[in-house]
Design a protein that fits this description.
Blueprint (H helix, E strand, L loop, with lengths): L11 E5 L11 H18 L3 E5 L17 E4 L1 H9 L3 H8 L1 E3 L1 E5 L5 E5 L8 E5 H12 L5 E4 L2 E7 L4 E6 L5 E5 L2 E4 L6 H6 L6 E16 L13 E6 L4 E6 L5 E8 H6 L3 H11 L4 H4 L1 H9 L4 E9 L2 E2 L3 E3 L2 H4 L8 H18 L4 H31 L5 H16 L7 H7 L4 H33 L1
Parallel strand pairs: 1-2, 1-12, 2-8, 5-14, 12-19
Antiparallel strand pairs: 3-7, 4-7, 5-6, 9-10, 10-11, 13-16, 13-17, 14-15, 15-16, 18-19
Helix pairs in contact: 1-4, 1-11, 2-3, 2-11, 11-12, 12-15
Length: 461
Amino acid sequence: MALQNGNSKKLDVAVVGGGLVIQAVLWFYCILLQVGSLEAIYLAKRGHHVSLYEYREDLRKTPHVRGRSINLALSVRGRKALKGVGVEDHMVNEHGIPMRARMIHRPDGTTYPIPYDARTNQCIYSVGRNYLNNVLLKESENYDNVKKYFNHKLLKANLQNGTLTFLKTDTKETVDVTADLIIGADGAFSAVRKEMMKQPLFDFSQQYIEHGYLELCIPASEDGGFLMPPNYLHIWPRGTFMMIALPNQDCSWTVTLFMPFKNFKEIDTEEKLLSFFKQYFPDSIPLIGEKKLIEDYFGGAPSPLVAVKCRPYNVNDKALIIGDAAHAVVPFYGQGMNAGFEDCSILDELFQKHHDNVPSIFKEFSETRWKDCFAISDLAMYNYIEMRDLVTRPSYRIRKAMDDFLFWLMPDFWVPLYNSVTFTTMPYSQCVKNREWQNKVLVFAVVFIFLFVSIIYHYSR
């Protein structure tokens, strides 16, 4: 592979993958391995020597673990990062399943679509997380300057001087490592971030929401096809809870039930479960099958969802955290993986801008990126309310129609919030600011129309 870095100084970089991931939290593990592998490739392309340390065994040799989503939603930010290492075309055109709209399932079983982008027909892609991991790991093998070490659990680190101590989980030996640069891509429960928290002036917060999730499955049909229209993200919004389904490449569906923990606790018998589904998700029962529904529901336990905010992301010019380690978000905007991948492409741009000057790179990344990460975290929290409740309300349909019309009329001036987040690389914080001024414009327009109509009515009497 051709290397991009003309700088004579080649860094020894330790990328820490899977850290203290103990509980099966939704797609955090798969994202952290992907982000670590992707960042390793970007650094290797620049000529640096990269060692990738992963807590788990090689995922390519591990069967799917129930309770972790087997597919992910890939959008523009993630696609840009994958394009940078030459695998976007394969993931999108040869593997991904396009999802062009939300398919809303009413309680009576009828459905209707809400397109993501009625103007240009852009879409998001359902991609298999194991497959994506395999592609990135395989791509990293094209670089002689990337070494991978599986079954390495980070025990401790001195981030100031770049030393790390790992436990080899298969042999129980400890290994000491020294690196010029440490990249923590070890997920929402990051061991690298835990060491960063010992530094002065490090801000950290985490928020568990009162809702958990449980994974179910709709199998493929008897003839091996899809049991529902495949080019949609299917949603069963029910106010305080919801169910979603994403298509898999084997024509099955990953179904995820999001609901308050107290509701999960109340459904403690097969009779209560079937009664609950007959009341709220009747059309899903023949798709899942009563027996499989019972097996899947009582075969696991609801898992929690956590959001993490912290800053700064670096310790001097020695260590940096990215992906979920820096900004874990709840999954309701489909941006967890995409934001983590975007970290990698932004870092690569900064390496290019600052000619591999690490202090300048880390300083700019840490001072600017947190605003966007905080913004997408808040947006993801809000989007859960939209998906499970607001999407069924007339006010939502009216606002979306107005946004779509103005976007069609003035595409360079009026970009709806969802489109700017999902189909552009506009900074997340700027997406929020755009939404705020759009709200002001619409409020002003409504007031103006009301006053105009009132005046016409008054003088017409």
